Amino acid sequence: MNCSSREAGFTLLELMVAMALSVVIAMISAMALGSGADFYARNALRQTKSSEFKILENTLRPEWQLRVNAFKLTDRSIEFVTTQPRESDLVSNVLRVNYECSLNKQLGYSLLHTSIELPPPPKTEVSAPVKNPQEQYRIQTVLLDNLKTCGFAALKKGDGGKDKAPMQWVSQWGVDDPVPKLIRFQVSDFRGELPNYVFVAETL
Fold it and tell me: What does pTM read for this prediction?
């Protein structure tokens, strides 16, 4: 007995529905794989940025602990003189260090660290920065890059009068001003993984 065409195979409508379902399933699978890959990529980016900020902190803290009194800050850079363990009498252990937000129109901001060896004051202890020093060597390192925003601020205390002014963040600090209690590094990246990230270095 012959089978009808309905029993012998799929109808055109059933084939079209099956193909449509296959396409939908493939799209859902691709979206799931894409979301998973994006999640792992974002997580890797967070870990990378966290490691970079750790390097920044590990660079700044010992330099700040051994700094000489003078300190200068703008909204795009901070600069001070620091010392390091002396290796020999022939090598200066006095450095002028600078943290600067450098703008690249294609890549955004980069946070640069520059250290310059300075000659120490002759036959005296290092107690103040050398004015107009002769630069002996210069080393520059990129601490962070591809930043959307980059800036610095220092916490200014109130005037201490009867009507005490509140503490506030300021973006200008001269060498004659007392060293601030807090310094803020505020950066963010283009992907929004670190929006308004604030790094605070306390004076010791």
Answer: 0.66
